[in-house]
Model the fold of this input.
Amino acid sequence: MDIRKCQAFSGLNERQAKLTARVKRLIHKTGSREKAVNHVVKHCPTEDEAQELVRSLISQGVDLQSTYDATGGPIHLSTKRGFKKVTSALIENEVPIDWKNARGQYALEVAIDMRDDDIAELLLRAMNRDVVRSLFIPADLKSKPKINFYDVAASCTSLKKTCTAVLDSMIEETDRSDDFVINYAPLELTADGCVPHSEDYVWGSPTAYHKVCQSRDLRHHCVTRLLTYRKWTGYAGLSSSVNIFAYLVFLLLLSFAAMSAGIQRVSTFNATTGELGDPRVYDDTKAVVRAICEILLLLTAMYTLYDEVQEMRSLGLSAYCGIVYNYYQLFMVTLLLAIVPLRWLDIDLQWYFLSILYMLAFLRLLQLLSNTRFVGIYTRILTHILKSDVTRFVALFIIFWLTFTGSFFLVLVGSRRPESMETGTQLDISEETRSFQSILFTGLRIMVEADSVVDYTDNGYHWLAVTMMMMYLFAIFVVLLNILIAQLSDTYADVKSQAAFTLERNWVGVITTIDLSSRFRRRRYNCYRPMEIVTRPQDILGSFDPPASNEDRSEADLRQQKLFSQVDQQSQTLQALQ
Done:
């Protein structure tokens, strides 16, 4: 056993000796330890080999402060090659990460250009937050940031960790524990690196805020949420209130015009000729007022159509078509405009179109009110119920419904009528079960009305038909409806727990529409602040956990990296022993 241990340790010593000899050859070849580090990072074929050599050079006392060259030093080389372990080892041993290469780029910029999310986050976490803010925040209104956060946010799907690290650095702690300085400037940058107070700022241009909000996790970041709240209270909330008020006026005009026309049609009925009243006649004061309302409705429809075209131009056709609500809006406008020729030609189809328009118009009020704290949660619950719970319930109900309808019909076809009645099948006992279609409709009525509809016990139905009816009633009233009730309870609890995030998502949609349409410019200009001192942000957000400082995080990462290094050394020792 002692002989084996000696052989194993001699093998381990031999491996270390080879590594030491190789490091000495590299130093002799390049001329110094510092140049050897750059050579290793640049030319090693694998990351593990490069990490091993770099750590060996560091253990021999290499001065990483003197490794700078035209490439930017080893930190740039490891970043460009995507060597995360090597980059971590260099940061662990305090290599300068604020060097620039010959192109004037930081290693962080190289990582962002390479779309290497892990290394970019590693560099950001290792940097002092003041340095990070100096890179992403413009020094003044005439200058642009060294790194435009818009370019990072535009690739938020592939650089999510990087975006999170940048947003974490935008939070500054103050002397008071309840006060925090929140920097909004990076989120307000456009593709040209301008903020709203800049002379070159183009109103209606997308900003980093709009790109970040496309990601659910980044939209829930505390900095993004605080900016959303500021924008909503500054101008978007006022816009929403104005829209709701204007829409209520629209509903008032629509209700008066529709009901007045309907009343005129039925109140002037001619019993002699059998003709109904003509809503095209405007011969009294009430009819004139109706005409004015109808003109205003047509003007509203044309303005809405124009607004939709403008939104399509600002968002782009693909983005516009991706919003389901836009189809709803266009369908309402189409119905309203289609009523005009139908009314002029006196075609009865106009009343069906008007009925559908009236229903959709009032239902749209739920969508507008979803942006308010008062009923927003209930509209979200209703939407979730219709999309998820009711869909599953209907799928299960259709199975039971079709099963009952077919079986019940076949039993009645094969059963004779009672002797007290005329000869025939039991299909003729009741109007509700006279045919397959009537049984199908009766089964649907049973579910909707929550009643048996048919008196199946006293009409002489066959015992098997009675049994099937009872089984169907049990399945619908006892099983399915109770399952639906349980689902609705869970839905309410889930939606309520996410109510704040859901409301803010609706706010983001309104804010994005306003920003891209370049409306409320004066209010938006006055609302912009590059930074803001927020007292007790948890009162606004419900909860607020400020991220740990980069220094504290770096110490934790350093301890973790040292632990990983020890594990690697132990694994290498075990391999040598094997």
